[in-house]
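Renewal narrative, Specific Aim 1. Our central claim is that a sequence can be written position by position from structural information alone. The example that follows is taken directly from our test logs and has not been curated for this report. It begins with the structure tokens describing the chain, in the order in which they were read.
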């Protein structure tokens, strides 16, 4: 039996979460639900603060249904719903209509973060009551919305016999989605991903523990380093520069490095067009009145001292001021007016730019502004420009502080990851989003828990520690070469699959392929020794070659072309093209698979109208391809490049996208499914007796926080479950996966100090 439910909560925001379940000021104001077969909805209302009410889940319920159900599940967990945990233990599942809609529509951009109001009419439902949304938009708290209006919104009006509102619309959408999922062969895939959603809900609820003392210490170090870089950089700004140079400004840095003219503004005097003189403010002064009707600024005393006679000054002849000299307010020249005006300042060229770095922006005289991003600064480093190292360091520091620590802007507003740290317990409850990418991979926000820099690049991850203090450890389980393994699964290329089974180092394999047709022909065994043996006499060169091929591997797996790969690896275009050809010959099944995907997309493509690059409405195409698991992917065409237009084509699909989506998406799907299976293990063991918690997933790895007493068991279970992809998908989906999915597990006191874990 299914149970549809929805919650309306108090809406205080804190730590970048609106209506946060972790904010003690909030509570569930209204809860609505409907069991399968019921003809009316039920509800309960809590007008005053109450964080103890929970949804009753009967033992006969096997499926919980909601729209953006993660929000509701987090709230039930926050209010201590024991029956939810028991429901999971019985094998209960969830169905999020928002997530299902996204998957059923092949991750189409229009289905990202879809709303119930937009989705329900597609399945025969109705739109919501506008008054409630209007009150929320006006900042009215949920508890202040009239009860009758809120309940009508949640479960329908009395005229609808309380069988409407969000609850009925969600049920209508759910029933329509089930039918569509069966027709499209996506039921199993959606079920597995829903368990993955339960896993990420658990991760968000558990959160990440932050060592705020360590974060504060590191922030001070970074700020001191940034100040030193600023001092060094400012010494290179011309002394006659009339404005405050901003090293974070693309315009300023482009003009300084490549030459150009900056338009700046300062407040200064200006000519009044009406008078032809400098503009002045209006002003008046009290002058003394003379008997001829004129006035003078000289006081009678000053006049007497100079001329001796003051009879020309007019006096009051009667009244309270009798005998006093008369004065009159007269206009006088006021202070000079100032206003912001444009001025130009030109910098001499230090070095010539590459025209491909030109942006759409222009300098003060209409010349191009060139990019000064980190990659370009690295490329410019070879030109011996003295301040570029400091500039690159400053850019890195600015990004690290502003993204992962905290910074206050000119308006006094704070930003950065540390603004998401709860003050009472030093936890971050980041968001893991399931419906925001075109590939079905997860994204993360507030803060982005999937974009922490590597430990050899930054100490950011050192602040993430165990909630068990010295008695706990962080555990990271990471798939090895997941993109290549997924390529083997999808393409079934015999040589690629055999290499995966043989645990070949693919980066060394590519080094072998790169030199195969040259005078320096080498074997795989030599490449392995050259690139990985630190005692090899030419190890440094071998390591460099392997690094290039590692970048090549990553870029190729995600569909990059030869020019892009050459630029990223530092190899010549000819080297890159030769290596790509050698790889195509080595793994022909990959080429065939990519061609099959392209054929499927073109064959299924249907026309649609959209604005082109020139702002005009044009006809494009949208095509589809379905993975062996049932996941659908969609691509749209774009304006054809010049060479294709010469052949009569007006639109073309993007080849890198068609190569990228299946690999990236399927890899993400495997990880999500294994997150779900791992979560089931945590449910089964009651989080290992409350001593271990799932807390994050980063693309191809899963983080856990565990007490040392259960660390080895948790690590072993993670490795076993994550490596079970072949067995699981072969049995459940009838796939023929013949390659292993090796997982490496590391443990340590924080996420930056991890060492390899080995089963005893």
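The sequence written for that structure reads:
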């Amino acid at each position: 039996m299914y149970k549809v439910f929805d919650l309306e909560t108090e809406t205080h925001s804190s730590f970048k979460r609106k209506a946060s379940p972790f904010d003690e000021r909030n509570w569930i104001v209204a809860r609505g639900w409907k069991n399968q077969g019921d003809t009316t909805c039920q509800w309960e209302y809590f007008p005053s603060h109450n964080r103890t009410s929970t949804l009753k889940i009967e033992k006969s319920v096997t499926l919980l249904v909601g729209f953006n159900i993660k929000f509701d599940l987090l709230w039930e967990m926050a209010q201590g719903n024991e029956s939810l945990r028991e429901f999971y233990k019985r094998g209960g599942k969830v169905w999020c209509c928002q997530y299902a809609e996204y998957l059923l529509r092949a991750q189409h951009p229009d289905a990202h973060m879809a709303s119930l109001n937009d989705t329900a009419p597609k399945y025969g439902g109705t739109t919501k009551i506008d008054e409630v949304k209007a009150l929320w938009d006006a900042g009215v708290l949920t508890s202040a919305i009239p009860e009758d209006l809120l309940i009508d919104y949640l479960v329908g009006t009395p005229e609808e016999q309380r069988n409407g509102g969000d609850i009925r619309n969600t049920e209508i959408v759910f029933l329509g989605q089930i039918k569509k999922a069966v027709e499209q062969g996506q039921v199993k895939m959606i079920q597995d991903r829903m368990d993955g959603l339960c896993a990420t809900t658990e991760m968000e609820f558990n959160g990440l523990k932050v060592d705020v003392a360590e974060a504060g210490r590191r922030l001070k170090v970074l700020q001191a380093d940034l100040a030193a870089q600023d001092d060094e950089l400012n010494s290179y700004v011309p002394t006659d520069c009339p404005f405050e140079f901003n090293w974070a400004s693309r315009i300023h840095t482009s003009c300084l490095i490549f030459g150009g003219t900056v338009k700046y503004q300062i407040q200064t005097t200006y000519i009044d067009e009406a008078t032809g003189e400098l503009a002045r403010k209006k002003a008046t002064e009290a002058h003394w009145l003379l008997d001829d009707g004129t006035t003078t600024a000289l006081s009678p005393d000053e006049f007497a001292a100079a001329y001796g006679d003051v009879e020309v000054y007019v006096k009051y002849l009667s009244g309270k001021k009798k005998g006093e000299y008369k004065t009159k307010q007269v206009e006088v020249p006021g202070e000079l007016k100032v206003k912001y005006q444009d001025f130009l300042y030109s910098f001499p060229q230090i070095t010539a730019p590459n025209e491909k770095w030109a942006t759409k922006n222009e300098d003060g005289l209409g010349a191009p502004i060139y990019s000064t991003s980190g990659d370009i600064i690295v490329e410019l480093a070879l030109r011996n420009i003295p301040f570029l190292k400091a500039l690159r360091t400053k850019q890195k520091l600015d990004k690290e502080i502003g993204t992962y620590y905290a910074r206050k802007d000119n308006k006094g507003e704070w930003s950065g990851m540390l603004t998401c740290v709860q003050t009472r317990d030093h936890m971050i409850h980041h968001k893991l989003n399931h419906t925001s990418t075109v590939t079905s991979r997860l994204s993360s926000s507030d803060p982005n828990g999937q974009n922490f820099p590597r430990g050899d690049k930054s100490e950011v991850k050192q602040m993430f520690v165990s909630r068990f203090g010295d008695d706990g450890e962080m555990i990271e389980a990471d798939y090895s070469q997941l993109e290549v393994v997924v390529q083997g699964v999808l393409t079934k290329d015999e040589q690629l699959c055999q290499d995966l089974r043989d645990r070949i180092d693919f980066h060394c394999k590519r080094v072998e392929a790169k030199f195969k047709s040259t005078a320096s022909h080498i074997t795989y065994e030599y490449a392995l020794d050259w690139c990985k043996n630190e005692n090899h006499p030419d190890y440094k060169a071998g390591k460099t070659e392997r690094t290039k091929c590692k970048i090549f591997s990553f870029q190729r797996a995600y569909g990059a072309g030869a020019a892009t790969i050459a630029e990223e690896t530092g190899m010549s275009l000819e080297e890159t093209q030769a290596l790509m050809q050698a790889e195509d010959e080595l793994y022909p099944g990959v080429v065939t698979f990519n061609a099959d995907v392209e054929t499927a997309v073109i064959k299924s493509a249907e026309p649609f109208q959209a604005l082109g690059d020139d702002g005009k409405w044009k006809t494009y195409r949208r095509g589809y391809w379905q993975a062996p698991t049932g996941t659908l992917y969609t691509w749209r065409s774009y304006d054809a490049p010049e060479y294709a237009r010469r052949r009569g084509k007006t639109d073309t699909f993007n080849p890198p996208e068609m190569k990228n989506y299946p690999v990236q998406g399927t890899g993400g799907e495997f990880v999500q499914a294994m997150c779900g299976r791992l979560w089931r293990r945590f449910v089964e063991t009651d989080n290992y007796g409350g001593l271990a918690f799932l807390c994050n997933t980063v693309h191809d790895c899963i983080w856990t926080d565990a007490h040392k007493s259960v660390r080895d068991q948790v690590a072993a279970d993670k490795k076993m479950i994550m490596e079970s992809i072949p067995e699981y998908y072969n049995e459940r989906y009838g796939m023929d996966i013949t390659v292993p999915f090796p997982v490496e597990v590391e443990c340590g006191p924080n996420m930056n100090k991890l060492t390899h874990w080995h089963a005893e």
